[in-house]
Amino acid sequence: MQSVDPQAVSAIIRQVAEEVILPRFQRLSSAEVTEKSPGQLVTVADTEAERQLSRHLVGLLPSSRVVGEEGAAADPSVLDRLVGADGAVWILDPIDGTTNFANGRKGFAVIVALVVEGRTVQGWIHDPLANRTAIAALGEGSWVDDRRLTVPPEGPIAAMIGSAGWRRNERLGKAVAKMVRQGCVAHDYLDLIEGRLQFAHFRRLHPWDHAAGVLLHQEAGGYGALIDGTPYRPVPLHNGLLLAPGRASWEQLASLIGE
To answer: Domains of the chain, with CATH numbers?
Structure first.
């Protein structure tokens, strides 16, 4: 299985965050924030971070290609690299939670995944403000620093806290303890693998948002699948995605969700 040194990738992500992203946090001018589509913000930090990450990561794996959020926004045909993909593809979200970042709020992160032959084999989520990185490799677990992560055991869904939109999930909202929205998928995944959240339901399945996180959750012992029960794949999808501590709680939660 083609892979790279996870610490080398972590070092690249951390360097880009320190040199490109953090210096602009709470210092962006209005000219440095634009809309790439209605309601979808992009900043100079997003585009520059993606450019730097792409260059350094391809340098680590010269035969690889890149699918980045900003590159795909500019040219949707970039996504074709993931469909029937052969070889290695880096999937990048240079700043997940751009709206938070652009408005000077906490709750943003860098997401990187390595997909080989259509399968996610490694994933990273880096929280620049906390300077910590969650790392996963297929079959090798999920880690933060030298601590292996394990999702909490299944319990009653009435005691669960999760990330999901209340407006279209009223039945679910009434059945669980609490639902939250952070405006940052990466932080949802960090909270899932560290036990602050027990479930998450996502409708928008851009590969740069989920490829790394699904692997991190799986390697921490969680159960996840598309809402129709089929496995997640790192390609553009239109089904909802549900993550839970295990299969039994997944099925209970799924029965309450209306797609």
So the answer is: 6-148 (3.30.540.10), 157-254 (3.40.190.80)
